Amino acid sequence: MGRKDNLKAPRSSEEARERGRKGGKASGVARRKKRDAKETAMLFLGMAATGNLDTLLSQLDVKEQDRTNQMGIVARLAIKAQTGDVQAARLIWEITGQLPKSNTENNFSVNFERGKGEVAVYLPQKDPDPV
User: What is the average pLDDT across 40-61?
Assistant: First the structure.
């Protein structure tokens, strides 16, 4: 993305129109690429799990028709979360809707000091009497 001081004002309305046309075409190309990448990922996630992933899901007693790549990825995330991987746990919570995607709504901070073994979580005070 260019900086504003590098931008040159169009010399004529014709030039402005041409720049807008080029920008619109580039935007369309970018949108199509993003759409295609999403469709490819969804196709892959819906495919049947194979190899080690299929073995893992069968060990977890997942029905054969439910053994997809998506199920395997979530299963591996859950296993990592159970072993203490905080990022995996947060991702599971986000996927299931138990954690907001951004902290803008629930602004909180965490303070951890090495050696003390204590974690402090500071939550904002809620208004007891919302208007």
Answer: 94
Q: How many CB atoms lie within 10 A of CB 69?
A: 19
Same domain, 30 and 69: no
Query: Helix or strand or coil: residue 21?
Result: helix
What is the spatial distance between Cα 28 and Cα 40, in angstroms, rounded to a whole number? 18
Distance of alpha carbon 93 from alpha carbon 99, whole angstroms: 5
Residues facing 122 on adjacent strands: 109
Give me 118's structure tokens. 């204590």
The residue among 43 and 121 whose pLDDT is bigger is 43
- The domain of 38 spans 12-46
Amino acid of residue 112: F
> Does 96 score more than 80 pLDDT?
yes
**Domain identity same for 18 and 66:** no
Say how many domains are in the chain.
2
> In the prediction, which pLDDT does 84 show?
87
Tell me phi and psi for residue 26, to 5 degrees. Answer: -65, -40
Report yes or no on 113 lying in a domain: yes
Q: Is residue 2 part of a domain?
A: no
